[in-house]
């Protein structure tokens, strides 16, 4: 079957092709909720707090609200699209139906960058925590990276039920840790003295106000906009939830509920952590603006240093939850593009017993680890660790922002082009909500460009894209398979042309 307008060709695979790529259904509403919340929750444990240096407390709060609006527009859009197009491809699937094979492939590439590199960044944070808690020499960090990848790949490979149970348990533990922190912090908070202890120095950089009681917006509205990229960490990766569509028991009913419950949970948690973490005596917004372990610092402020090992292990739970769930997403994302022929089809073979995309997960993990090891051994332990944390983080956010733009555009196109497909859930924000998502994502990218680490990341993302696009242009587009995503798109393209 040919599609000359897009320059691609398809072949219809026989039953044995899909038998080797079968998935099993297990996930209900709460499993989906845990998958979405678990992927994001590490961003409430660390990372978000660097925004205090660019916006102060008020800037961080308002930036968080703006980013929350972006994610509301995005999550309501995907809550509509995912049950209407209940395929593992998620973002690629939405864009494929709306914008054709090239649009689908480019959107899939954006998500691929995010899901391959984000676990690499998180595992460096996990290793830093473990080194700090146990007093290990950082020179051995690569061994810990390999250990954590091996353990959580095994949990993801050996059974869907096991993977979702682990996800639910560690997500609940992570949230319980956060709730425990909120309860501990409220009686001790001194908001004006500590959360408002940032001023602006003669060079325009943040300085500490010894008595606190500073401005809510020390850097003005420009500071709010400059803080948008940091606020993204409070919600980054909630969009991975639709990747579980073909492993959900009833995606048309459960997927919208899981997504909406997830974003509500995260909005409540984000507000509480932004309010309470910097309000504790001895912590403060200025200290947190450069802190690598903000939640651990908050616990120390309340309970002292005596239980630092236990508190450190407690603070690790959020990072572990996100690492585990994004490894899940990484596997499904690579699997879906491979099953349809955009990536080599060998990557989509599933385990004959456990029905999990183990080849895709192992390949994605190998690429993430390889990138980390090359950086580490090229630059040395100290500089390598910094580059992994900063450059790979920016690469992941870059891929995420572009995928959000493409998904929101896909939503608008599908509303206009395919108004009559079954939509078990309709976004209450509609096209205006999707348009807001595009606008805020573009503004966030523009301010992210001002980070010098961003440019280093962009260069490597461009290389990644160039290699993948060359493969698709020369080989992949002539070997596409009529997977469920592709068949749905082809059928509805014909229906739209006849309407």
Automatic annotation (TrEMBL):
Membrane topology: Multi-pass membrane protein
One Gene Ontology term, aspect cellular component: plasma membrane
Membrane spanning stretches: 26-45, 57-79, 140-159, 166-186, 216-238, 259-288, 308-329, 358-379, 391-414, 426-448, 454-474
The UniProt record lists the keyword Ligase: no
Molecular function as annotated in GO: transmembrane transporter activity
Keywords: Cell membrane, Membrane, Transmembrane, Transmembrane helix
Subcellular location: Cell membrane
InterPro entries in UniProt: AA/rel_permease1, APC_superfamily
Family matches, as Pfam families: AA_permease_2
Domain of life: Bacteria
Annotated PANTHER family: AMINO ACID TRANSPORTER-RELATED, MEMBRANE PROTEIN
Name of protein: Amino acid permease
Organism: Aliirhizobium smilacinae
């Amino acid at each position: 079957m040919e599609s000359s307008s897009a320059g691609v060709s398809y072949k219809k695979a026989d039953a044995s092709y899909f038998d080797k790529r079968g998935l099993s259904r297990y996930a209900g509403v709460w499993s989906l909720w845990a998958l979405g919340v678990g992927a994001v929750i590490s961003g409430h444990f660390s990372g978000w707090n660097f925004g205090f240096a660019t916006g102060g407390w008020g800037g961080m709060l308002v930036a968080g609200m703006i980013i929350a609006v972006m994610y509301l527009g995005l999550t309501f859009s995907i809550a509509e699209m995912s049950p209407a197009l209940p395929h593992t491809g998620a973002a690629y699937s939405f864009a494929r139906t709306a914008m054709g094979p090239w649009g689908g492939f480019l959107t899939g590439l954006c998500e691929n960058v995010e899901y391959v590199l984000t676990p690499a960044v998180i595992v460096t944070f996990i290793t830093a925590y473990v080194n700090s808690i146990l007093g290990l020499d950082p020179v051995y960090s690569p061994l810990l990276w390999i250990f954590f990848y091996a353990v959580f790949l095994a949990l993801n490979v050996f059974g869907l039920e096991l993977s979702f149970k682990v996800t639910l348990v560690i997500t609940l533990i992570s949230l319980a840790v956060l709730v425990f922190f909120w309860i501990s912090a409220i009686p001790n908070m001194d908001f004006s003295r500590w959360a408002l202890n940032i001023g602006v120095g003669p060079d325009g950089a943040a300085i500490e106000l010894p008595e606190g009681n500073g401005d809510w917006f020390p850097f003005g509205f420009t500071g709010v906009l400059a803080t948008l990229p940091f606020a993204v960490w409070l919600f980054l990766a909630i969009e991975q939830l639709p990747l579980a569509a073909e492993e959900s028991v009833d995606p048309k009913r459960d997927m919208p509920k899981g997504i909406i419950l997830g974003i509500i949970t995260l909005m409540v948690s984000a507000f509480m952590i932004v309010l309470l973490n910097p309000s504790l005596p001895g912590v403060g917004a200025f200290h947190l603006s450069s802190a690598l372990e903000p939640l651990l610092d908050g616990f120390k402020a309340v309970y002292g240093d005596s239980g630092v090992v236990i508190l450190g292990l407690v603070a690790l739970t959020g990072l572990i939850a996100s690492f585990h769930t994004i490894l899940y997403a990484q596997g499904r994302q690579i699997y879906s593009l491979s099953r349809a022929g955009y990536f080599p089809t060998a990557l989509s073979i599933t385990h004959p017993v456990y029905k999990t995309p183990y080849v895709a997960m192992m390949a994605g993990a190998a690429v993430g680890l390889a990138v980390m090891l090359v950086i580490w051994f090229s630059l040395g332990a100290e500089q390598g660790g910094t580059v992994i944390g900063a450059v790979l983080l920016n690469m992941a956010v870059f891929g995420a922002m572009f995928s959000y733009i493409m998904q929101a555009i896909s939503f608008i196109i599908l509303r206009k082009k395919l108004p009559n497909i079954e939509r078990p859930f309709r976004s209450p924000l509609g096209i205006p909500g999707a348009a807001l998502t595009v606008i805020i994502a573009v503004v966030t990218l523009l301010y992210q460009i001002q980070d010098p680490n961003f440019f280093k990341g962009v260069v490597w993302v461009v290389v990644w894209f160039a290699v993948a696009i060359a493969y698709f242009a020369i080989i992949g587009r002539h070997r596409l398979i009529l997977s469920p995503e592709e068949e749905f798109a082809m059928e509805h393209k014909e229906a739209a042309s006849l309407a």
